[in-house]
Amino acid sequence: MNMAKKFFIVSALSAVSLVAWGQAEVESSEVARTFQAELEEQYNPNSINPIPKYEHHYKLRVWRTIDLNEKQNKGFFSNNGEITKLIIDGVKSGEITDIFASDSLTTKMAKEEFLGRLVQSQGAQYDQWDPTRTWFTDEITTYNGRNYRVLVDNTGKNPETSPDDWAATSEGKPIDYLPRDMNILRLVEDVIFDRRRSRLYYDMQAIQIIIPGSKTTTQVDEELGWFKYKDLEKVFRNHPQKAVWFNRQNTAQNKNFADAFLLRLFHGTIRKIENPEDETIFDRYIGNGRTYREAVWATEWAEIELMEKEHHLWEF
Predict the structure, then answer these.
(1) Which of 44, 72, 228, 269 is the most exposed place for a label (fewest CB within 10 A)?
(2) What is the pTM of this model?
(3) Torsion angle, CA of 206/218/278/199, rounded to 10 degrees?
(4) How far are the Cα atoms of 101, 202, 231, 251 from residue 225, in angstroms, in the given order?
């Protein structure tokens, strides 16, 4: 066999090897992508400690209403240490970037829209300062984003550089709701019984801040927005000096908000348990002509049924 034939055979074998290697790489990549997709499908991306679906023996999604004015929940609502203040500050500073319009956590809300919902009363609009105009005592003007009140009649005196003629004033600025006005939280969590560990877990998914109708000008609850609990937990951990659950019995045992949620140191009334009609407990009872009092008792009964279910699962 001459050298030319040998070179041809070696080249052909090399080409076949390269094609086979490339095909194997493609197949390997496809297998990896398929495996990754199946893996992602098994785990909830909004969970802090996700439990794979194949480990679920029992699962229910539950909506709870947490009234921060209740005595048991006061630890989250101490003066100047409100959980709502920490969340709002996180949004304003940009630490919390994802705000959602619903508990599905799919449709995001713009930061500007969220901050707009915090406004209790809109600010007044004043004339912009005009150096050619004569300004009279007690008139108010706007200059470089700030409002100024006339102290002495003047013309052409710059409000920023003439403290004898002008005084900065907060009058006319929009008024925001205070953190203490936002005393209602709505919590969404998955109640999961892990068949491998034989234990019930509360997998918190999202929290919504609500201003009750008693604090709003319209007398209607103002729903501000939803946040992934996963994002809030990071904020709580990053601010241990601010995210303090206050222990009224022993301040040596104050805890981080994240630990307080993990230990279930709150009381949340069940509002809804997932159902085909997507009805709240109150919707179902009132819609069937039952009294408000019966609906209230039904929320307590739903809590008892969940506890009983956990007991039976332990027996299993």
Answers:
(1) 72
(2) 0.79
(3) 30
(4) 6, 22, 14, 32
Token pair of 28 as six digits: 């390997």
Q: What is the pLDDT of residue 143?
A: 87
> Can you point out the beta strands (E) in the chain?
56-67, 119-121, 134-135, 140-143, 146-150, 154-155, 166-169, 175-176, 184-194, 199-211, 222-228, 244-245, 255-256, 269-273
What is the Cα–Cα distance from 26 to 18, expressed in whole angstroms? Answer: 12
Closest residue by Cα to residue 51 from 187, 193, 259? 193
Residue 54's H or E segment, with its range, is none
150: three-class secondary structure by DSSP: strand
- Over residues 65-69, the mean pLDDT reads 97
pLDDT at 33 exceeding the cut of 60: yes
Alpha-carbon 137 to chain mean position: 47
Per-residue pLDDT reduced to its tens digit, 178-237: 999 999 999 999 999 998 888 899 999 999 999 999 998 888 999 999 999 999 999 999
- List Cβ neighbours of 232 (8 Å cut-off, separation of 6 or more): 87, 96, 207
Domains along the chain with CATH numbers:
53-119+178-274 (no CATH), 123-173 (2.10.10.20)
Side-by-side strand order, sheet with 166-169? 140-143, 146-150, 166-169
- pLDDT tens digits, residue range 266-313? 999 999 999 999 999 999 999 999 999 999 999 999 999 998 888 887
Token digits of residue 238: 């990053």
